[in-house]
Design brief:
The chain has 272 residues and is of the alpha+beta class. It has five helices and 16 strands. Helix 1 packs antiparallel against helix 2. The chain is globular and about 50 Å long.
Length: 272
């Protein structure tokens, strides 16, 4: 068979091998459970963080981490794939009276549902779509971060050279963006916006990388490591221009190795 009929690059996996979780603080765990479990229909992890001061919420192979504290709002939108949008709308309507007086809202826009959590976090929920999301029927296919105009090229270079990730820049109807593929089905996206960005409030995302020491070395050389957590984890938050050192975007990254005890841990999920 002629090997030219195959595009082998579509099978490649970049250095960022796992998107683990989005961590945002919530002031009220009961309202969080109403929203994430009763409203969105997700599953609370039954094994870890089962008390009243933190909740881990499973979404396919990803999670939301919801420690109790002053509300944090991700500067962007979290994309979800859920099995049935009609059922989702019925659940969201059923919890609306319990979330009155908060920022909770939802609206269907064609083949997706835009949802706002009680504290202002934005989510965009899609139905399964093999053309866009492959075999994913339940999951977190992307986290999209707002960034300042003109930052996309520098952000793409940062992820390519420091994280060794195949970042791709592009333009669409909404403007310039950078997409960083993660693992088999997730992406981190930075999208340029003219809106004024609120101050960074400390929320974070968690990733796992194959070349754990190489990424650490390149971050350390630039003075970007913010926490030496343990043998298999560290953190950084500033994405910088590699020529000038100017901060292009801020998003705390909890970086884990593939030897981390929680790497690729099977998660319990409901299927409907």
């Amino acid at each position: 068979m002629n090997p030219s009929v195959f595009n082998r690059s579509t099978e490649d996996v970049g250095n960022i091998v796992e998107f683990g979780h989005v961590n945002i603080r919530v002031p009220d765990q009961q309202q969080a459970i109403i929203f994430y479990i009763m409203g969105l229909g997700l599953t609370r992890d039954p094994y870890l963080q089962t008390g009243v001061d933190n909740a881990w919420i499973n979404v396919g192979t990803c999670q939301f981490h919801l420690p109790v504290g002053p509300a944090q709002v991700l500067r962007g939108v979290t994309g979800l794939v859920l099995p049935d949008l009609d059922t989702l709308l019925a659940r969201l309507a059923s919890v609306a009276p319990r979330l009155q007086g908060s920022k909770f809202s939802f609206v269907r826009n064609g083949d997706l549902v835009d949802v706002t959590c009680p504290w202002g976090n934005r989510l965009r929920v899609h139905a399964p779509d093999p053309a866009r999301f492959g075999r994913m029927a339940l999951g977190m296919p992307y986290v999209e971060i707002d960034s300042a105009p003109g930052t996309a090229p520098g952000i793409a270079r940062f992820y390519r050279e420091v994280l060794a990730a195949p970042a791709h820049s592009g333009h669409d109807a909404s403007g310039a963006f950078v997409r960083i593929p993660i693992g088999l089905g997730e992406s981190l996206v930075f999208r340029e916006t003219a809106r004024t960005l609120p101050p960074f409030d400390g929320h974070h995302v968690q990733i796992a990388v194959a070349d754990f020491s190489g990424v650490h070395r390149r971050l350390l050389e630039r003075g970007l490591i913010t926490e030496e957590s343990n043998q298999s984890q560290y953190r950084f938050q500033d994405i910088t221009d590699l020529d000038t050192g100017a901060v292009l975007a801020t998003l705390e990254h909890e970086v884990r190795s593939m030897r981390h005890p929680l790497y690729a841990r099977p998660l319990v999920n409901r299927v409907a």
